[in-house]
Write a structure and sequence with these properties.
This protein is α/β, with parallel strands linked by helices. The strands form 3 sheets. Strands 3-4-2-5-1-6-7-8 form an 8-stranded mixed β-sheet, with helices on both faces. A 5-stranded parallel β-sheet has the order 10-9-11-12-13, with helices on both faces. Helix 15 links the parallel strand 9 and strand 10. This is Tyrosine-protein kinase family protein.
Amino acid sequence: MPGTVITFYSYKGGVGRSFALANIAVLLARWGNRVLCVDWDLEAPGLHDYFRPMLQADPTSGVADLVEDFVAGECRPAAHITRLAHTDTLDLITAGRPGADYRGWVQSVDWASLYDDGFGEYLEKCREKWTADYDYVLLDSRTGISDIASICSAHLPDRLVVLFTANMQSIRGAVEIAERANAARRGLPFDRPRLTILPVLSRFDTREEYDRSEEWRRICVRETESLFGNWVHHTVSADVMLRHLTLPYVSYWSFGEQLAVQSESSPGADQIGFALETVAAVIAHEFDRTDLLEENRDAYVAAVRETNRSFAYDIRVSTQRSTMDFADELIAELESLGTRVGKSLSGDRSLLGKAEDNAQHLCLIVDGKVSRWQSAEVELFLHRTLGQDRRVIPVLTENTEPNALTGYVGNLRYLRSKGSRGLAGVARDLMDQLNGDIALVDTGDVDLVDLLRQAAHALLRPASWHLVGEIARDLVNAVGAGDSQRAQALGEELAVMTRSRLGENGGRVPVPSGTKEALEWAESVLGARAKGTSGGFTGYLPE
């Protein structure tokens, strides 16, 4: 799937456009995306200054050299990329080599003549190469209305991020460029859909003059409301959306070129990194699922932050002190199946201070009832989980009645530890749930697979073996019909028949070949799992 080209544009300077692009690029790369930043602000370049600590040497070429390649009849889209240090997923194309020659070159370029000579087709080839190699290509555009701004706002992008401040020139200029860009795209000889526009209210100070700031927020919403129509969920208002897309003014970050998101790794709601994360998450969600953003901003961000994330543990087992030994045995069984398992103990406050969870799934060992601490742990897990494939699975001890479970946990599919299945069976069922495997029938507290294996090693009279074979065949038929109740009853009958006769030799013989075949087939059928499919299983012995 090709990457997405996103232009960052502002009608006027001084809105923090390059600052926003650089920080959002770092976030997208941190979340596992391949990102290329391109400085198309040729008249006032400076994007590379934000990445200076990551530059191993001064860049020697950039966008200007791409243009010169076209004039020379060459096409080398990747030749002018600067690799940044300390990352494998974030690269940069600067505006070009600085110096007096560069300034003269910028002033002499005739963009209209270049397009007449086929520069548009050349840019398409560059675009194809970049979107094949990167998930996101972020373009830092020239301000105002110009030929360069048109390249970045109409020709190249799939999405347009428009930054503006709370004054009418900036607001109306942002709306105007969005309208002009879509009008210009209709005349392009390339296949381009209507632009999706992300309005970002930047450098907005609400700490003083609160009433005045709210008045201007209403003005901003009114003037930009049309830009939200084709991508924001119908239940989400423009006012709510723009509040999420507001970058606050923080004087500290107005000095120099700094990457705030590198200093604010776990930002609070009053820090600029928090707002930058929100904007980056909207981009990473492809401008989608804004209803989830309104419902739970932290989970919305976490959903993209953890999309490409590798967890330290596949599952965390949460236990009370009364079930510590039980938890340790279950963890040992899970680890024997190749599962990476972590453990949390009720009252462990270190969980509360972590910005992210280190386990993909949560197993809740419930002894009698869900403790208040476990309820809080589940709530925290769900808060970080919205929109992700992460699950909570309760495992009930023998002292726990399912009807005693309340709230969210009471509606979950649970596992039982009692019966012949033991913790090994619980561990297998737990992994089946995590892998999306569904048992063809619910065998209750009896491990029918283990029971069939034991039966195959019993010593019985020949007439009894005939009955065992019939039970095995009936079990297969019950599984094929999805009849869990019948399968459980047959399991109980098989257990009674074989348990009292194990090890007794008088007149008893090992399992005959025909009955052994029936037992093995029943074992394979009961051990089968379906991947969430509703298709039936015939379950009959092959003839």
